[in-house]
Specification:
The complex is a heterodimer of chains A (305) and B (333). Chain A is mainly alpha-helical. Chain A is built from 13 helices and no strands. Chain A is flat. Chain A starts with a helix and ends in a 7-residue tail after the last helix. In chain B, helix 4 (110-121) crosses helix 5. Classes of the chains: A mainly alpha (305), B alpha/beta (333). The complex binds adenosine-5'-triphosphate (ATP), iron/sulfur cluster and magnesium ion (MG).
Chain lengths: 305, 333
């Protein structure tokens, strides 16, 4: 276990470093810069700004400076939002995205696991067909379409739900539906196929031969085995979802990290891009470790290596 | 109550598949007294497992019992509800399966899986159930039972797991133990150990056993009664002596010829009976073995052979036997 943790930490450091390096150079190779688009600024002022933030230096030198600072926990100031550090922006925006995203993942699990199991148990029957159609739609329809449709019907036509912001519980309904649509569909499909697999296993026959009741067989013997693929999927999915979706945050005007990240990319806010990327990478890695540990708890055959 | 523990009369069972009705069991009759051992032999697909599972009410979808009576220990299984069946499964009637590697749930400990069935059918407390589980592991010859209880199936060998399956099956001291090819998946030396264990436990606990197998050697050493199945029928039924020394049905004779003798080597083991098993979707009108039978006659193709009885126990379903017996009867007069 100790060996495993040490190994994962070392691996995490290497991975984050690689992600950061790749992002740094790709980002700088893309034409444009943080101060080029602002017409009001004179060439002299631009030059002065670039000098202030060190953008006039050669790329490798800037890379070294950034990495040294980052190692000391200093991710710099935002180039576009004057007076704010990258850290403070993430600290402000992440909780917003995390709340909407976290609720969405919870909804996806609460709906996806039972519905997928029901589809498997009722294989070939009407319930299975209905669930499969929903799952296919959920996977195929892009989120901006879902957002737009929701917005049009519930927001505009029926006027039932507020269309922007997150002031009340009601405000969460549409963004959560939009965000949880895809993962719900995906979990349903995963759950259906793994449940079908488990239902055909010999140990299920053993459980029936013992005289156990259907519910006990399902909840004790089937579910724990069938849920394993979902555990694997949920880790990374959770990391992506709680860091916010650009589309959903833009459409429903949610001040989250997802929107912030895309704005940073468009504006070439180099430090914010780097900071957010490293944050996301770290989150994904942490989630994967959590998945490994949960997997080990659910399935004793797994050895952590 | 019948004099038999198991009394299956004219069981007919079909699987209603999209391709049509698969007539898996046709007029199967089996009876067995308390403490007796019955062997069911026959090639793959002959209906051995289906017979056994139906007695436990575990017929797989889309199988349906369409005729006959299944009496077990005073119960009429064919009329019992699922809820009533659950009370006897794992309790009065137990089963062990072919593949011990996959028959235990990989995510629960051995102890959990044994105590589960004890707690289900008795009102023992957790502690008592655990003590009983420990006792059972000792009974089936597993060392360090205390430690084993905490282990997971993947930490045990195949033979060990089959012992655990036996422990689970015997946990509530059933009247009948069904063993569906319990040793097929195991090494030869382990096979012998498991069979020996089963016989030992039978003597100790006095349950009846239905032993399903491909292996005639196994039934020869264990079973008092043997049923030879072919295409969902019992084509010959008798004592071990009848089947091995006086086989009458052409299929049984073929099976006996295919037994490896002591002096044969592993690779030349079986002289299989030529031909392929009959298609149960479109069974022939006559004897299902006719296409593979050297002695087939005209009538064999047209009509189902009747039962020919030789003595109180021994019978076959074969036209040739019927003809011979009639000639014998005629010459006696
Ligand atoms: N679930 C099912 N659906 C359709 N047909 C089935 C099903 N289960 C069994 N059968 C049919 O029943 C027949 C008997 O099967 P069974 O499993 O009893 O054979 P067996 O004698 O136990 O063979 P084996 O030695 O391979 O275990 C098979 O030929 C098969 O066609
Ligand atoms: S009934 Fe005819 S075909 Fe069938 S086993 Fe007897 S002799 Fe052979
Ligand atoms: Mg079988």
């Amino acid at each position: 276990m100790v060996k495993y943790i040490v190994k994962r930490i070392l691996l995490a450091i290497v991975t984050i470093w690689a992600v950061a390096t790749l992002t740094f150079f790709l980002m700088n190779l893309v034409p444009g810069g943080p101060f080029l688009s602002e017409k009001a600024i004179s060439p002299q002022a631009t030059a002065a700004l670039e000098a202030k933030y060190g953008l006039d230096k050669p790329m490798y030198q800037r890379y070294l400076t950034y990495m040294t600072d980052a190692l000391h926990g200093d991710f710099g100031d935002s180039l576009k939002q004057r007076g704010r550090t990258v850290m403070s922006i993430i600290a402000m925006k992440f909780p917003v995205s995390a709340r909407v995203g976290g609720i969405s993942v919870l909804v996806a699990l609460i709906l996806g696991i039972p519905l997928g199991s029901i589809a498997a148990l009722k294989r070939g029957k009407a319930a299975d067909s209905v669930i499969s159609v929903i799952a296919t739609c959920g996977i195929a329809v892009p989120s901006f379409v879902i957002c737009t449709v929701l917005m049009y019907f519930f927001g505009v036509k029926l006027g039932l739900l507020p269309t922007m912001g997150l002031q009340s519980a009601k405000h969460y309904i549409m963004p959560v539906i939009a965000l949880s649509f895809y993962p719900t569909a995906y979990i349903m499909r995963l759950m259906r196929s793994s449940m079908l697999d488990v239902l055909g296993q010999d140990y299920m026959r053993t459980a029936r031969a013992k005289g156990l009741a259907g519910g006990k067989i399902l909840f004790k013997h089937a579910l724990r085995n069938a849920i394993l693929p979902v555990v694997t999927y949920v880790g990374p999915m959770l990391a992506y979802t709680i860091t916010g979706s650009f589309v959903v945050e833009k459409i429903f005007v949610i001040p989250g990290l997802g929107g912030e990240f895309i704005t940073a990319i468009n504006g070439r806010d180099y430090t914010l891009i780097m900071g957010t990327t490293i944050f996301l990478a770290t989150l994904v890695i942490v989630m994967n470790v959590v998945v490994d540990i949960v997997y080990k708890i659910v399935d004793p055959r797994i050895k952590l290596k | 109550m019948s004099e038999y523990l198991v009394d299956i009369k004219n069981e007919k069972l079909s699987f209603f598949t999209p391709a049509g009705e698969v007539k898996a069991l046709n007029d199967v009759s089996i009876h067995l007294r308390e403490g007796e051992v019955l062997g069911i032999v026959g090639e793959s697909g002959s209906g051995k497992s289906v017979t056994a599972y139906s007695l436990m009410g575990l017929t797989a979808h889309p199988g349906k019992l369409i005729g006959g009576e299944l009496n077990f220990n005073g119960h009429q299984v064919e009329n019992m509800t699922e809820k009533e069946m659950r009370q006897i499964r794992g309790n009065e009637i137990s089963i062990i399966f072919q593949d011990p590697m996959t028959s235990l749930n990989p995510v629960y400990t051995i102890g959990n899986q044994i105590t589960e069935v004890i707690r289900l059918h008795t009102d023992k407390t957790k502690q008592e159930a655990k003590a009983r589980a420990r006792e059972l592991l000792e009974l089936v010859g597993i060392n360090e039972p205390e430690r084993r209880l905490k282990q997971y199936p993947h930490e045990l060998s195949g033979g060990m797991r089959q012992r655990v399956m036996i422990a689970i099956a015997l946990a509530c001291e059933p009247k009948l133990l069904i063993a569906d090819e319990p040793t097929t998946a195991l090494d030869v030396t382990i096979q012998a150990q498991i069979l020996e264990l089963m016989m030992e436990l039978k003597d100790k606990l006095g349950m009846a056993i239905i032993m399903i197998t491909h292996d005639l050697g196994v039934v020869a050493s264990m079973c008092e009664r043997i049923a030879v199945m072919y295409a969902g029928r019992i084509v010959e039924y008798g004592t071990a002596d009848d089947i091995f020394y006086h086989p009458k049905h052409q299929y049984t004779k073929g099976l006996i010829r295919s037994i490896p003798r002591l002096d044969t080597k592993e690779h030349e083991r079986l002289i299989p009976i030529e031909g392929t098993p009959v298609d149960l979707l479109n069974p022939p009108a006559g004897c299902p073995f006719a296409p593979r039978c050297d002695a087939a006659m005209q009538i064999c193709l047209r009509e189902m052979p009747p039962v020919t009885t030789f003595d109180r126990v021994h019978y076959t379903q074969c036209w040739l036997n019927q003809k011979e017996e009639m000639e014998k009867g005629a010459s006696h007069e």
